[in-house]
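subagent[fold] <- orchestrator: predict structure for attached chain, return tokens only, no commentary.
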Amino acid sequence: MLQSRNYCWIYSYGSKYTSFRATCFCHGRICSTKYLSKVVYDQSHHKKAAVLRLPALCCSCDIKKPLRHFLLVLFFATVVPSVGFSREYVTTLAQQDLRSLTGSSENVYVVDFANSLPATEERLLNEKLIRLEQETGVKIRLLTTSEPIDGSSVKKYWNLDQNSVLIYVDTRGGNILNFLPGQKVKHKLKDNFWYELQSRYGNLFYVEKYGEDGAIITVIQAVESCLKKDGVCERAPGFGRDQYALSFILSISGGFIAGAAASTGGNNKVNIPWLFLFSPLWGILFGSFGVGPIVVREGWLSLDLLQNTIGFLVSSGLSFILFQRLFSNISSKDS
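subagent[fold] -> orchestrator:
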């Protein structure tokens, strides 16, 4: 026998073929009655099971009062407050819509979801990318966002292929620059090129100083110059100002060491052997850090290279004069 506070007594009546009448009880009171479908039983079965007690799952009162109260409280605690936050809900839906790109992509080369670009710069940049594709045949697309983006929808929207580059600017934190170059583009613009662009212009310090729009414009200028350049781009063109400051200081340091080594000859004579003896030290400082990085990125005809060379020569000359006088004073005191 099933025990339940909500139950149905099912009575059989009639003769050979009969219907069953169910009377449902909820907490001891009758709540509803209805006729069940006709079922064929022989008379003996009716006598053996004239009355059957079953759980009243079919009754309209099978939800207990405490449960109804709980659902009522839950309704006012969740549904009703959400009406007050309808604006936030609409905003959330709008942000979710930004995760995919829809519509026509014709002449749409820049999609600025994150509002990183002023309207005028966005329009000029879009026109520039259109001209660049006509000149080089490489499709460059720019996407900025502060929300996750569905990569498959982006690729489908712009029909990105092996001869395209997606510049993806994610402003949610950290390095904002991401690149997705096709394999054909990588033949000309190597992996180191993209790594340098990301580390040099996408870092937090550069973005804080020049802004997100400054970083984006500088990156596109670098890509444009390398695409129009003959040959392969192993390194990103240009030299970051922080990198240049370091190379300039190291060039001056190398000149100081070279001048000091050359001044040991005394009597305003250059000590060639000592100059060559210390050449690994000043040569690394000036050659490897003051000349090499600039030549790789900007070539031999570079203002940065000229300034480093002048700094090296001036530093070595001053160091030579300083140590010559120092040695002469020591010699005069000894004599």
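orchestrator: received. Logging for downstream: Residues 161 and 182 are 6 Å apart (CA to CA). Residues 241-334 form one domain.
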